[in-house]
Amino acid sequence: MSEKNDGANRDATKRSARERLQEERERQKARDKRRRTFLVAGAVLGVLGLAAVVGVIAANAGKGDKPGKDGPVAAPSGATGKDALAIQTGKDSAKSTLTVWEDFRCPACKAFEDNYRATIHDLEAKGLLKVEYHLVTLIDGNMGGTGSLKGANAAACAQDAGKFAPYHDLLFQNQPQETDDAFGKNARLLELAGKVEGLDTPAFRSCVEDGTHNSWVLKSHDAFRTGKFRGTPTVLLDGKDIFSDQANPLTPQKLKEKVEGTGGKAVPSPSASPSASPSGNGGTRSGTRSAPTAGSGSASGSRTGTGAGSGG
Length: 312
Hints:
Layout: H1 2-60, E1 87-89, E2 96-102, H2 107-125, E3 129-135, H3 138-143, H4 147-160, H5 164-173, H6 186-193, H7 202-210, H8 214-227, E4 231-232, E5 234-237, E6 240-241, H9 252-260, E7 279-280, E8 288-291, E9 299-302
Parallel strand pairs: 2-3
Antiparallel strand pairs: 1-3, 2-5, 4-7, 5-6, 8-9
Helix pairs in contact: 2-9, 4-5, 4-6, 4-8
């Protein structure tokens, strides 16, 4: 009896051990299955997460590049030159081309315009000279503000309306102090437009307020920097810099002689005022200086730069 009981107990013990082993194996299988499930799920989530990151990168690609927030480049009507970055005045048939890089906030640019305006207009009227204006935002970068950009955009809007020349002249005639960002206010630009007959229209106002040509202006400034010009104004006659030689400074009379081909003969000029020194390009210090002149006057402009050929 006792032996039978011992045998039964041993059998029960063996079955119990087998059952426990089987149960443990089942539990292990379950754990392995759950682990595989977690690994697969984790891999899927990783792929999805990577895809999301790639999507964010793609969505943000180029946001820091120009034209950026200002939208696609929209050149003003009739823009000419490389990449349509110039606004031309004067007749296409004119044999001489004056290229001017300038900033509506630049005091030296104002001095140039005030001194040479009558001479340039006279030569244009005679069909001898055309001018290609390139607008830049140098002073915004040096002094802060948006007047250079917004003033240039407004001038481009005036070009759309066929009123660039008078509005261009008016902006320089009413240029605020270099540290005063008055042209950064659309209201001021529109107020001045009211002084040019036929310019203050709904289309012009919309163009100014929407910053339609902002990206075009920024692209023009990029070209200025790429060109490594010394500063504003930069003035080229038929591609030759005629404005930077301080040993033989340009004057309205000399410009007239060069264009008319008079070889230095005395020719009455609408203005005898000398040239203005350029505002420097792309430096780290800012101030004002008086430019030397051949007469009794002087031109004051912002001086920022590290010398000729520095970037903007």
